[in-house]
Amino acid sequence: MAWLDEAFHRALVEAVLVGTASGLIGVHVVLRRRAFFTMAMTHATFPGVVVAAVTGLNLYLGGAAAGVLAAFAVTALARRRGHDASTATAVALAAGFALGVALMSARAGFTKDLTAYLTGSILTVGDQDLVVAAAVTAAVALVVALLHKELLFTAFDPAGARAAGYRTGVLDLLVLVLIEAVVATAVPAAGTILTLALVVAPAGAARLWTDRLAPMTGLAVAIAVASATGGLYLSRAFDVAAGGAISLLAAAGFAVSAISARRWSPAAPAEPASPGPRSAPDGALPRHQPVRRP
Fold first, then answer.
1. pLDDT at position 281
2. Which of 100, 110, 120, 122 is the most exposed place for a label (fewest CB within 10 A)?
């Protein structure tokens, strides 16, 4: 029997891939303060899942398509005068979930169980899920590697980035689409309800230990992968839900970092200036500097 023929081994590969993708994009979620948006995307995908279930399409493909549409809507609303990103995100969260409930209730005789989509079912992943997870992880890694300076600059100084000629709207939309892609990919492991912990908690923990982008990214990936694989082993050992175990480990990693980083980290230096075209290559991040939005 091939190694990947066993369900647990496939789940282990999925956990490593999802953990890597979550750690990579999670850093930019934390730096851009997009945790609320990530939570909204887990709800905004719900109508796509219902439509996919009704029509017989792949649930995760339907959820991803709905999430991408929500990302475009959030970007368009946030750029209108008198609206900010948090308002647009809240509207997307409420409208997406409400639309899914309405579609489900309007469909007479709808009985398909969507519990696995909500809470995760990593032990049932197939070869197609692994291929999708590998492709999304590779795409996120490529974008983060090629555009790390631009993403860092636009996160901390969008006005300066626009003045320097960067297309901040395109970069913002790219980040939102990547977040949605990772959310949709992480659903088999943690489900829509618990995915937020896997994306945000490892990156938040890494941010407590370092102010430099490269070490922060590596540490976030390590914590996310350890949470995903450790939760999977805990699930098998204690017969608990894998999604819950993965999310609890990620949250525990953040809690331990919050307690330990204060004790072991050196005193914070004076705040550097906002990263610009000259300072961005060094990868240093301002500590506790608020993000100005366009």
1. 45
2. 110
Residue 162, both tokens: 């626009």
Residue 291 CB neighbours (<10 A): 15
Which of 25, 89, 64, 54 minimizes the C-alpha distance to 217? 25
Asked if 40 and 70 count as a contact pair (C-beta separation under 8 A), the reply is yes
Q: Convert the pLDDT of each residue in 207-262 to its tens digit.
A: 999 989 999 999 999 999 999 999 999 999 999 989 899 999 999 999 999 999 87
Three-state secondary structure call for residue 239? coil
Angle CA 155–44–73, to nearest 5: 55
- With 0-12 / 13-18 / 19 or more C-beta atoms within 10 angstroms meaning exposed / middle / buried, residue 177 is middle
pLDDT in tens, 253-269: 999 999 998 776 554 44
Residue 55 and residue 219 in contact, taking contact as beta carbons nearer than 8 Å: no
Question: Roughly what angle, to the nearest 10 degrees, separates helices 242-264 and 213-238?
Answer: 140
Instruction: Return mean pLDDT, the chain.
Output: 82
- 15 close to 189: Cβ distance less than 8 angstroms: yes
Structure tokens at 61: 């493909």
- Tens digits of per-residue pLDDT, 139-169? 999 999 999 999 999 988 888 988 988 888 8
**Distance between CA atoms of 46 and 181, rounded to whole angstroms?**
14
Sign of CA dihedral 184, 188, 194, 197: negative
Q: What are phi and psi of 81, to 5 degrees?
A: -65, 135
